[in-house]
Amino acid sequence: MNKPENLIENGIRLDGRKPDELRPIKIEVGVLNRADGSCYFEFGGNKVIAAVYGPREVHPRHMQKSTSAVVRYRYNMASFSVEERKRPGPDRRSIEISKVSREALEPVIFQEYFPRSAIDIFVEVLQADAGTRTAGINAASIALADAGIPMKSLVSSCAVGKINDTLVLDLNKDEDNYGQADMPVAITKDGNITLLQMDGHLSRDEFREALEMALKGCEAIYEMQKAALMEKYPAQLEGDVIE
Ligand code: CDP
After folding, report:
1. Can you tell me the distance from the alpha carbon of 65 to that of 58, in angstroms, rounded to the nearest whole number?
2. How far is CA 59 from CA 117, 120, 129, in A?
3. Can you give the residue range of the structural domain that contains 87?
4. Residues near ligand 1 with C-beta < 6 Å?
5. Coil, helix or strand at residue 22
6. What are the pLDDT digits (tens) for 14-51?
7. Ramachandran angles phi, psi of 95, nearest 5°
8. CATH number of the domain within which 153 lies
9. Ligand 1 atom index nearest CA of 83
């Protein structure tokens, strides 16, 4: 799409959403038989799969830690996931996203329960439409729970940004391409921020308002993550296991 004159008109975005509206979300838990935990997550035009393996032996051995598990996160885009074919294999962008996504999840994982072992998280992007790192974190958090990895909380993630001087939640590809700012955020249930990045510019006041908007978006996503897990594990989760 060429740059549209306006990405938002009379408070309605080009895809019909209001400024503070998330794209539709679809979640399936436990979609892969060979993984210990897995999740398929659709976030608007993004389609991602997360697979979790572990706790398991660490290879290569020198990577193991004597007092805690090592958490490894690999974000990968399928070559067919974007408009112009993505060259297979890791690149600067995927290495960065893998690192920040791992750091978004590590604070909630009880790593000290599993010394000398590894918890491996793989996120495969099948279709991309801006916000793939947030979709990946949401999926990975559910896959970790599905794998039975002890966690303090789920992690929920979405982006907020600015288009035509208006703050909007959860940018799509055109808004990301032609907008003024993009700020992905991830939070735990207690509101601890575990990821915060920003492309573009926001004033101090805009930043505060944007963060508020993102936190509300994450809270809504959290409810959907929890509902998806409750559906798969109705008996086990009755009560307050997931807080
Ligand atoms: O996906 P996310 O917003 O987390 O990361 P980004 O680096 O801001 O990328 C934004 C979007 O650009 C992606 O979601 C893809 O839709 C697109 N993209 C692409 O078309 N080709 C690439 N090689 C990388 C990203």
Report:
1. 9
2. 9, 11, 34
3. 18-237
4. 82-83, 86, 93, 128-133, 173, 176
5. coil
6. 999 999 999 999 999 999 999 999 999 999 999 999 99
7. -70, -40
8. 3.30.230.70
9. 20
